[in-house]
């Protein structure tokens, strides 16, 4: 973020329709490819993948500098800052 603050990414649980849509539309990955990516990431860096929360919007408010994704239909004006909008297919 501006000011040099670290971002804290948040993921929806594996298999959740929101995460599946994010992985497909934004990352261009199938679920198995995403799982492999995070497995290799952990091996290479020694770090864990982002924490998983059922309600990603709520999690963003619980974690300082949290960032995540939601379906546009779940967005409420003024509740969170929009960084990117991915068009539906």
Write the layout of secondary structure elements.
Blueprint: E1 8-9, H1 17-27, H2 31-45, H3 56-62, E2 66-67
Characteristics of this structure?
two-stranded parallel ribbon, mainly alpha, globular, 89 residues, 3 helices
Give a written overview of the molecule.
With 89 residues, the chain is mainly alpha-helical. It contains three helices and two strands, in the order βαααβ. The chain is globular and about 40 Å long.
Low-pLDDT segments: none
User: What is the quaternary state of this protein?
Assistant: single chain
Rounded radius of gyration (Å)? 14 Å
Number of beta-strand segments: 2
Strand fraction: under 5%
User: What share of the residues lie within helices?
Assistant: 25-40%
How far apart the termini lie comes to 29 Å
Main beta-sheet strand count, sense and barrel state: 2 strands, parallel
The SSE order reads EHHHE
Mean pLDDT across every amino acid position: 90
The tally of helices reads 3
Which word captures the global form? globular
**Broad structural category:** mainly alpha
Strand order of the largest sheet: 1-2
């Amino acid at each position: 973020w501006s000011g040099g603050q670290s971002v804290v990414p948040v993921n929806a649980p594996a298999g959740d329709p929101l995460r599946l849509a994010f992985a497909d539309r934004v990352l261009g990955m199938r679920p198995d490819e995403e799982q492999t990516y995070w497995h290799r990431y952990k091996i290479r860096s020694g770090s864990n993948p982002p924490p998983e929360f059922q309600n990603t919007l709520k999690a963003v408010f619980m974690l300082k500098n949290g960032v995540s994704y939601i379906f546009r239909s779940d967005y409420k004006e003024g509740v969170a800052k929009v960084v990117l909008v991915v068009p539906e297919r």
